[in-house]
Sequence to fold (361 residues):
Amino acid sequence: MLQTKAVRQSFEQIKQVSDLPGLRAKIEKLAAQAAEPGLWENPEKAQVITSELSHAQSSLEKLTVMDRRIDDLVVLVELAEESDDAAAWAEVGTELATLQPNLKEMEINTLLSGEYDQRPAVVTIRSGAGGVDAADWAEMLLRMYLRWSERHNHPTKLLDTSYAEEAGIKSATFEVNAPYAYGRLSVEGGTHRLVRISPFDNQARRHTSFAAVEVIPQTEATDHIDIPESEIKVDVFRSSGPGGQSVNTTDSAVRMTHLPTGIVVSMQNEKSQIQNRAAALRVLQARLLAKRRAEEEATKRQLAGDIKASWGDQMRSYVLQPYQMVKDLRTDHEVGNPAAVFDGEIDGFLDAGIRWRRQQG
Fold:
């Protein structure tokens, strides 16, 4: 069966890129380090070692399970060919339909080799030009990414939401706590454009609105982003819900400003001021890390003589009127079902973006 051969060939390529002997050697080395008696005398080092060990073991387990499932599929095909039974062929079809998406995800993960790609992600969405439509559009994007995370069983945590007066949100920040979340979602950074008949226009005119998406990796204890207290200004205020309605009777929300860069982070979704302050500091560190990385990349491009603009601006258009289509302007990947995209079916765009970025490499 041709499909079975194609599945086996694809997996053999993934195994080759994954370097199984090297992965096993890495696990053996990390396991020995994790077993050392004085490991936790240095908590930061211990956290790195145990995290790397867990990730390497998980990667090996996925490869081993996939290898076994493909072997089982070959046996299923042989039995179906011998019996020529419709039920047996249906079982082959079901197993193929399950294997192929898993195989595709493993293939994409082999392309995520950036320094921070394996980390969880911190995503911020901000409404742009377009008034109330833009605020509504930002909230639609927030739901889209949360639905995508839910589809993949990725835990999320909403850190901050700033509601607009009439509808939608001014901004929102949330974490996606899953391995490779940053690597996969990082291609979503940029300006997203929506064209539709505005539900807020009593003359039913077509409106264009914009929202910006920022994706940064979560910081870890070993990132060493030290921020002196003298460089931080902290303001506290009362949390609020949609339309300005108070949802907290104490000044528990925190606005943290990094004075040297002007970066501002607000947090209000935790229960206490201490928790909001900790969350704000965590996101501020992540943004400073992303800023440092961007500056390093800019220096490298300048030294290499490459000063072309970033590909992030207006990277995707979502059109609901006069036709229905979502198109990525970098990869040309497009679909004709915006409703499915808004419900979190964005893996095609993520995969195309990751492949495109690798080609630009």
Summary: Residues 2-109 form a domain with the Methane Monooxygenase Hydroxylase; Chain G, domain 1 fold (CATH 1.20.58.410). The chain has two domains: 2-109, 121-304+312-360. The longest helix spans residues 43-83. The chain is about 50% helix and 20% strand.
